[in-house]
Automatic annotation (TrEMBL):
Its main location: nucleus. Residues 12-167 form the Condensin complex subunit 1 N-terminal domain. Signal peptide: none annotated. The gene is NCAPD2. Belongs to the CND1 (condensin subunit 1) family. GO terms for molecular function: histone binding. GO terms for biological process: cell division; meiotic chromosome condensation; mitotic chromosome condensation. It is found in: Chromosome; Cytoplasm; Nucleus. This is Condensin complex subunit 1.
Length: 1193
């Protein structure tokens, strides 16, 4: 039908329905409708509503169909025309629904007999509404009015027209077929429950979903996701309505659907936050709350990682809403810390978020330090103990109530009263007159009462029972009891706080290691956690804050930004009323961070400060730093050093323009009193000059005041015993070579002056002073070589470039063309720029070889002394002297290959025989540098370097693994079988060494086939009987190494190699190690076939359990994931293994030979020849034959 005709018909019907909604109210309210009129109006309503609903359905279907067909169409006209039709219906859809709502809200039920509306009428209206809900775009924001109108129409039908059960069924069907309607359905059910008062519909739908079995949910597919989303959304809208029927959903917690478990857990969390929270819950509410929390705690260890993560997120919401009871904090905290070791990254991330929420919303203290809490806890515990002792000594007298007192007195009082009254009452009553009887009786009663009181007081109750305490004493005792209760509560509070702080500190130790994970989101969460922990002054939180510093160099922009923002939040966000106050706060924060900071830490902080430079505070901060450094403001030596380092970061130009001030303050007459301040000042100046722009290098003349101060401070310190002089001297020599115009001449005079001072000042040369002089020689030698290869070489290239540019300008166009032709030839031959650079390199090498240690050079004077000290450890046994001499000798060996060759044997002798760990560690570092500089000379000595991995001292092993890792991963040193010594360090008792060894193999695995090529040699070395490695240790190491073998071809090749090594293995232990190694491989079908082919290599060892059991475990792994045909082969081979293990290889082979002979004899005796096809052996015999010959069937 034409669209125009559709709309025309629709307009007519719509006008009729609207007319009915206007005319019916007056007719219905009048109550004068006859039966015929009522029937006429009823027919009009039914027909018009029917037509309107059907037209709406058809128009909606055409609209959806047209939107799908025209979506990818091209051409403006077509799109415009189709868009106009769609837009027209989109605007009419809401109007139709409003009209229906207006009509249905009238009391039209009275038009039906007995007000019973036919199901067909209800179905007609509701079907139209559900049809509109199936529109794919109904959930979009632009369709919210239409969506609300549909919900209102259905709400009227549910409330007035008995459509509740039908709505429940239809909601379930919509969820099953349209996953995108989960949010819409939740909104609808919420509206029907709250706005229309049909609360029972929530329970009905929950029961329908709760009765779904695991099999039904498995068949649902996308419906399961829709159910879970619906329940989660509904819990956020009407959590109160879900509580009565929540038990029907709890059955899904035991089901197989992870999505449904997530939904139920989210429902529980929402109910706990929105309903079952606060201190005003009754006993039933508390019971429900505890039951739901127990359920959530159980699913922190759910089998599915997604469920575990969502439960942790639910707990984060509960903690953030302060809905978690205080008594559960420690328990949930412990569970969250345990989840930090989860295999799932999402779970780890959620656990970090929960722990951060615990710290941010903890009810205990703003400072969580178990160390700080220990003393107050001990003090208050002692006070509580004292109060309890005092209370026990002064126990209050038992208070007896009046009723108890009378109960104790009544028997004797009654007996006494009776005996006294019976004695004289009869005689007195007879003598008295009737007129006096009443007065006498009164007098007798009074006298009797007085006598009884006296009698009781003096005779019977002289020892009275305890009487109630006075009001004053009672109030005092109650006050003491209240104080005792308060003290008990305080002690318990401190205990809970300490327990909470210990859990946080335990979490910090784990999370600090997560800062260097490869997953960006986990690293970001770890950074945020460290910031939160630091803000609450948790013990050891500074370790995490400092540990994240190197991440500022991360190539991941998100990680770098997280670290920068973290430091901005902690240290670079000053608070104060004025700019000056803010600057002081900022300087205080950064100074605390700079205290005892290493050189690497300072470089990282410099990068952060450069990223967070606040121009508004720049001048004020520099002023505060200058005041601290110059001493205008009284401050500690640590803060003064921090100030000069921060000046180098924040104001480089200011520092350069005030070199004289720096020299006078830090390098003046009092330099010997604080070499650390002098060192940090030198570092600041060096870093500033190192950032200078390219071009003519910035150099100062030799007679500059800075160099006078430096040489004076170095020379004077040689004869002193200041422990900080060494670090100052190294930085000062570095600065001299960076800034001085002729640093070699300056340092030569410095060496001469220092040696003269040493000889003049003491009659007998002090070992410490001599050690410091030798350290100075080594530093000068090292920086002289660095100066030549860095500064001089760079300057030569710069001058060559300027010369070439000048020559090009002087040449004309003809000369340029000729040079271009020559350069093309040189480019083809690969000689462009090579000759000039080679000439410069050769020039530098020649200077190092011939001039630096020539007879006239000051450095050559000290070389024999260095060799003598290093080669005579018995004579020169002073620790500092030996250390300095060995380090200086290694620095001299950097000068030229000749010096290196002449002294390399001596250096390795020192490495192996020195009794000082510091000497061995320094020598390893020096040999690493020499390996980079002269690889060919050091290559034969590689085994000696690897031998230090087994050093008895942990610091030496740590240094060795660090140096070797760098050499191997940078391809300076070839990877050989000695890597087995690195593998042994995977079990080192020192955790840091273990982590470095693990990192070595992680990085090595990134190189193509590196670990695959090394594995056979590593296994042979580690299983060598002479090494004597424990079986458990071998298995642990191999398990880690085989985890890097992931390629199928590598596995197949290793199976063959390991099987071949069974032939050369001599001991049972070696057989067992090879079998275990085979079992650690991720065996595949090709590997299994290779294992069959190599049967002869290990079949004679199968009698040993240590060989048989690992091979059996291989078969078990293969059988689990094997296809039927391959599984049969595995089972057949497993039977063969078992038979050989139980009977022995020889017996099995004899049985097979006898069986083959019998079959051969039987075939020869047969009279009738069999067809050719029948002579083929059976499958079982062919398999037996194949196994016996080492082939796969």
């Amino acid at each position: 039908m034409d669209r125009f005709l559709w709309f025309t018909t629709y307009s007519c019907v719509f006008s009729v329905v609207r007319g009915l909604s206007v005319s019916l109210p007056s007719l219905l309210m009048s109550g004068t409708l006859s039966a015929a009129d009522r029937k006429q109006q009823l027919n009009a309503v039914k027909m018009s509503v029917f037509l309107l609903c059907k037209l709406t359905e058809n128009l909606e279907s055409d609209s959806c169909r047209e939107s799908i067909v025209t979506a990818p169409s091209k051409g403006r006209k077509k799109e415009k025309a189709s868009g106009k039709g769609l837009q027209q219906w989109d605007s009419e859809r809401e109007t139709v629904l409003q009209c229906l709502t207006q009509l249905l809200q009238l009391d039209i039920r009275s038009l039906w007999n007995l007000s019973l509306v036919e199901e067909e009428f209800v179905s007609c209206v509701t079907f139209c509404c559900y049809k509109l809900l199936e529109n794919p775009t109904i959930g979009h924001m632009k369709n919210k009015p239409t969506r609300d109108a549909i919900i209102h129409v259905l709400g009227v039908m549910v409330k007035k027209y008995n459509h509740m059960l039908g709505a429940c069924v239809k909601v379930i069907q919509l969820l099953q077929h349209f996953e995108q309607l989960s949010s819409v359905c939740a909104q609808a059910v919420s509206a029907w429950s709250s706005e229309y008062g049909v609360k029972a519909i929530v329970g009905e739908i929950m029961r329908e979903i709760g009765q779904k079995t695991s099999d039904e949910l498995a068949r649902e597919g996308s419906g399961v996701k829709a159910f879970s989303s619906f329940l989660s959304e509904l819990s956020t809208l009407v959590p109160e309505a879900m509580i009565p029927n929540i038990s029907v959903l709890l059955t899904h917690l035991e089901g197989e659907s992870a999505s449904m478990r997530v939904a139920v857990c989210e429902v529980l969390g929402e109910v706990l936050v929105r309903v079952l929270s606060g201190d005003k819950l009754d006993d039933s509410g508390r019971a429900d709350r505890d039951r739901f929390l127990d359920t959530l705690q159980e699913h922190i260890h759910d089998a599915h990682s997604h469920v575990r993560a969502r439960v942790l997120q639910v707990y984060s919401r509960i903690v953030n809403s302060k809905a978690l009871p205080l008594c559960r904090y420690t328990e949930v905290m412990e569970l969250a810390v345990g989840r930090l070791g989860d295999k799932s990254v999402l779970v780890c991330k959620s656990a970090i978020q929960l722990l951060a929420a615990f710290i941010a919303h903890n009810p205990y203290s703003c400072k969580l330090s178990s160390v700080d809490l220990k003393k107050p806890l001990e003090k208050e515990t002692a006070k509580l103990k004292e109060m309890r002792e005092n209370m026990s000594e002064k126990a209050p007298v038992a208070v007896i109530s009046a009723a108890d007192l009378w109960a104790a007195m009544e028997p004797e009082v009654s007996h006494t009263v009776r005996s006294h009254l019976e004695a004289g009452s009869d005689a007195e009553r007879e003598e008295d007159d009737e007129e006096e009887e009443e007065g006498v009786q009164d007098r007798s009663d009074r006298d009797t009462a007085i006598q009884i009181a006296q009698y009781l007081r003096h005779n019977k109750y002289s020892d009275q029972p305890p009487t109630p305490q006075k009001e004053g004493g009672k109030a005092a005792d109650e006050g003491k009891e209240n104080e005792l209760k308060k003290q008990e509560m305080l002690v318990q509070y401190l205990k809970d706080t300490e327990s909470f702080a210990l859990q946080v500190e335990r979490a910090i130790a784990v999370i600090n290691n997560m800062l260097y994970w490869k997953t960006t989101t986990v690293v970001q969460e770890a950074v945020q956690f460290c910031v939160t922990a630091r803000e609450f002054s948790v013990a050891d939180s500074v370790c995490g804050v400092r540990k994240m510093l190197p991440l500022v160099w991360s190539t991941d922009a998100a990680v770098k930004d997280a670290v920068v923002q973290a430091y901005r939040r902690l240290y670079l966000n000053p608070q104060g009323d004025s700019t000056r106050a803010k600057a002081q706060t900022l300087v205080e924060s950064l100074s605390e961070l700079m205290v005892d900071a290493s050189l690497g830490t300072i470089q990282c902080l410099e990068e952060i400060v450069s990223n967070c430079n606040e121009n508004a505070l720049q001048a004020s901060v520099v002023q505060v730093l200058w005041e601290r450094f110059s001493g205008k403001r009284e401050t500690s030596a640590l803060h003064k050093r921090a100030a000069v380092l921060l000046l180098g970061m924040a104001a480089r130009e200011v520092v350069l323009s005030n070199l004289d001030t720096l020299c006078s303050v830090a390098l003046g007459e009092k330099v010997t009193e604080d070499y650390l301040l002098a060192r940090d000042t030198v570092i600041t100046i060096t870093n500033i000059t190192d950032h200078q722009s390219k071009g003519v290098p910035f150099r100062l003349p030799v007679d500059h005041h800075l160099f006078s101060c430096l040489t004076q401070a170095i020379a004077d310190g040689v004869v002193l015993s200041d422990p900080h002089w060494q670090t100052f001297m190294e930085q000062a020599i570095r600065l001299i070579y960076f800034l001085a115009e002729s640093p070699d001449k300056l340092c030569a005079r410095l060496l001469q002056r220092s040696a003269r001072l040493l000889l003049e000042q003491v009659t007998e040369v002090c070992c410490v002073s001599l050690a410091q002089l030798l350290s100075l020689c080594g530093a000068v030698a090292f920086w002289q070589v660095s100066h030549l290869e860095r500064s001089v070489s760079t300057e030569l290239r710069r001058r060559r470039g300027e010369k070439e540019e000048k020559e090009e300008k002087e040449k004309g166009p003809v000369g340029k063309n000729k040079d271009a032709n020559d350069s093309c030839v040189e480019e083809e031959l690969g000689l462009t720029g090579a000759s000039a650079e080679d000439t410069e390199a050769e020039f530098i090498r020649k200077i190092c070889e011939t001039e630096l240690l020539a007879d006239g050079n000051m450095l050559s004077v000290f070389l024999p002394l260095l060799v003598k000290v290093c080669s005579s450890p018995g004579r020169y046994s002073h620790t500092q002297l030996t250390t300095a001499a060995c380090l200086a000798l290694s620095q001299y060996m950097m000068i030229s290959p000749t010096v290196c060759k002449d002294n390399i044997r001596l250096l390795f002798t020192v490495l192996e025989k020195s009794s000082l760990p510091v000497v061995r560690a320094n020598t390893i570092i020096a040999l690493g540098d020499l390996t980079v500089r002269f690889p060919n000379i050091l290559e034969p000595w590689t085994p000696n370097l690897y031998a230090r991995l087994c050093d008895e001292n942990a610091s030496v092993r740590l240094t060795a693994i660090t140096v070797l890792t760098q050499l191997v991963l940078k391809d300076v040193m070839k990877v050989k079988g000695q890597v087995s010594e690195v593998a042994v360090l995977l079990l080192d008792p020192e955790p840091h060494i273990t982590s470095l060894a693990l990192n070595f193999f992680n990085e090595l695995s990134a190189k193509d086939n590196a670990i695959y090529n090394l594995l056979p040699d590593i296994i042979s070395r580690l299983s060598d009987p002479e090494r004597g490695m424990k079986e458990e240790d071998f298995n642990t190491i191999m398990k880690q190494l085989f985890s890097y073998i992931t390629k199928e071809r590598q596995t197949e090749s290793l199976v063959e190699k390991l099987c071949q090594r069974f032939r050369t293995a001599k001991t049972e232990r070696q057989w067992a190690d090879l079998a275990v190694s085979l079992s650690l491989l991720s065996m595949c079908e090709r590997g299994f076939k290779k294992l069959q082919e190599c049967w002869d290599c290990y079949s004679d060892k199968l009698a040993e359990d240590a060989v048989y059991q690992p091979l059996l475990s291989i078969m078990a792994k293969l059988r689990r994931r094997a296809k039927p045909q391959f599984k049969a082969q595995v089972e057949e081979f497993e039977k063969k293994l078992t038979v050989v293990h139980t009977k022995g290889l020889e017996n099995v082979e004899n049985e097979e030979r006898e069986q083959q002979l019998e079959e051969q004899t039987h075939s020869e005796k047969a009279q009738t020849p069999l067809p050719k096809s029948a002579r083929r052996p059976t499958r079982g015999n062919s398999l037996t034959y194949a196994f016996s010959h080492g082939l796969s069937a």
